[in-house]
Specification:
The chain is α+β, with helices and mostly antiparallel strands. It has three domains: 70 residues, Multidrug-efflux Transporter Regulator, Chain: A, Domain 2; 59 residues, Orthogonal Bundle (434 Repressor (Amino-terminal Domain)), CATH 1.10.260; 104 residues, Jelly Rolls. Helices cover 34% and strands 20% of the residues. The strands form three sheets. Strands 3-4-5-11-6-9 form a six-stranded antiparallel sheet, with no helix packed on it. α3 packs across α4, α5 packs across α7 and α6 packs across α7. The longest helix has 16 residues. It starts with 10 loop residues before the first helix and ends with a strand. Keywords: DNA-binding. It comes from Rhizobium sophorae. GO terms for molecular function: DNA binding; DNA-binding transcription factor activity.
């Protein structure tokens, strides 16, 4: 028996089913109302759920006369909460960010403006837990008075004394090319992580926080910049210790993966 995958619609097909034009779909995408998938050749592909969402967007626009920001809020209010639903790690971060925003009484446009990103970027992050730079994720955590580690689902219970090689639990891959693996969890005085950076992966901006941090390069090559003018080219076996309140940014300068041990104390990242 052939394994038939889920139905995927092209732009013209999805537009016809939603009763709008293809250009309207592209506009809605730019406004962060819908994020279609992509084929291997880069063409937009809409799932059945996407088409249902398009129909709701059209209804809110025509029948209720809502603007894009109001439509995003209305769509969010329709989405089921994590209570009683099967929550996955991949979408948990986005749900946490949306809950924090709602608790603060802010709209997508307000938070996006305060952080300095587009509303569509923030909407995508809240719905998919993906699509932002490491710096933006840090800025959002600081904005809501929490840390990236807590947003990413690290446990605050008993410390895990032993973590076997290859059994690291990972953060949701919010930033393309950046994988963060947990070397210890629970109540502790240090954030202990193993970073795996794809070629070209970078923080895409500088950030800072309280505390001190230590990094040790296991393989590859990392460029770290402190205060915008101090450049460190770190190779295998190199280590660096610095105060976290200094602006720091980084990128993988290796043509392959760069792997490093990264420790923050206290756990303020």
């Amino acid at each position: 028996m052939n394994d038939i995958g889920p139905v995927r619609y092209k732009v013209a097909e999805a537009a016809r089913l939603a009763g709008v034009s293809a250009s309207t779909l592209r506009l809605w995408e730019s406004q962060g109302l819908v994020v279609p998938g992509r084929s291997e050749t880069g063409h937009r592909q809409y799932s059945a759920d996407d088409v249902a969402r398009l129909k709701r967007i059209s209804w809110y626009r025509v029948e209720r006369g809502l603007n894009p920001a109001a439509i995003r809020e209305a769509l969010e209010s329709e989405e089921p909460s994590a209570d009683g639903a099967e929550a996955s790690q991949d979408t948990g971060l986005g749900r946490k960010l949306r809950s924090l925003r709602h608790a603060s009484g802010k709209t997508l446009d307000q938070v996006a403006g305060d952080i300095g990103v587009t509303s569509s970027t923030l909407s995508t992050l809240e719905r998919t837990s993906q699509g932002v730079s490491f710096k933006t994720l840090h800025d959002l955590a600081e904005y809501y008075g929490t840390t990236v580690s807590r947003l990413s689902g690290e446990k605050s219970g008993d410390v895990s004394e032993l973590v076997r090689a290859g059994e690291w639990r990972a953060w949701p891959e919010t930033t393309p090319g950046v994988a963060v693996q947990l070397l210890a969890e629970g109540r502790r005085m240090m954030d202990c992580h193993r970073f795996v950076l794809a070629p070209g992966a970078a923080s895409e901006g500088a950030y800072r926080h309280e505390g001190e941090e230590f990094m040790h390069v296991l393989s590859g090559r990392l460029e770290l910049v402190l205060d915008g003018d101090q450049f460190f080219d770190l190779g295998p076996g190199d280590s660096l210790y610095f105060e976290s309140r200094r602006d720091h940014s980084w990128r993988n300068r290796h043509d392959g993966e760069t792997v490093l041990l990264w420790i923050n104390t206290p756990p303020t990242f």
